[in-house]
Amino acid sequence: MIELVIDQRRRDLGGFEVGRVLPHHGGRMVGPFIFFDHMGPAEFQPGFPRDTDVRPHPHIGLSTLSYLFDGAMTHRDSTGAHIEIRPGEVNWMTAGSGVTHSERFETLRARGGRMNGIQTWLALPLETEECDPWFAHYGDADLPTYEGAGLWARLIAGEAFGATSPVKVSSPLFYVHWRLDAGAKAQLPAAYPERAAYVAQGVVEVDGQQFHEGQMLVFQAGQPVLFTAVTPATVMLLGGEPVGPRLIEWNFVASSKERIEQAKADWRAGRMKLPVADDKEWIPLPGDPPPPANPMS
User: Fold this and answer.
1) Is residue 75 annotated as involved in ligand binding?
2) What is the pLDDT of residues 143-173, one digit of tens each?
3) Domain range spanning residue 50?
4) SUPFAM superfamilies in the record, alphabetically (predicted)?
5) Are 53 and 101 in contact (CB under 8 A)?
């Protein structure tokens, strides 16, 4: 039933730690999910440095999906989107042919508090890999929820458990947030060929084994999966139809190495638009000198 167990790897992004789960060695994806970061959990004091913010950086060939359990984060991108995401809400940004965005912790810097959430990237299918970039935001009240028998569930994106999320997706997938009371049981159906579960908090039992916070379980196809919460637990379910092999390098996802090299050249040359006209912050490629002033700003 369990094909693979992936332990998160803690990464310091400059004053802020994430638990990186995907990409995993061997280029493993789960449906279209190619990247998965657990942001935090972390406690911030008011007035922490601005270098904790994620400065403007580019993407191609993917959609980013940001979802928070605690805290707040301000998203800004080159489509003109500028919005704060709060717990239970969804930020969906499709990069397509190219987008630049930043993520800033303005509310936490002013007030302090806890930050805890998930950001994942979804590879775009070939037919939309070079689409125009776009952004959408969804409130927590927009998303289907269920509660009963010790389980609370929210369908973040896609289709699952007889429900459909309003979040616009590019390929068949599911992404679900579960909260389970200790002793509660819940089952993941066998509806999609690629499925996984990430334990974001607590301990769960699957197939006679216990798994804890920071572990992703990747399942074989064809059988339902029964979960039992050993302690109160938060579990993220994800998967879908495969979109075909993809390359991931730095912030870029593409079906060819040539497309990634072109994107790197565009970023170095300042041909990728920054989130706002007067935003001169940048994130270089490793070993690169600072890029010139962005001519599209």
Assistant:
1) no
2) 999 999 999 999 999 999 999 999 999 999 9
3) 2-240
4) RmlC-like cupins
5) no
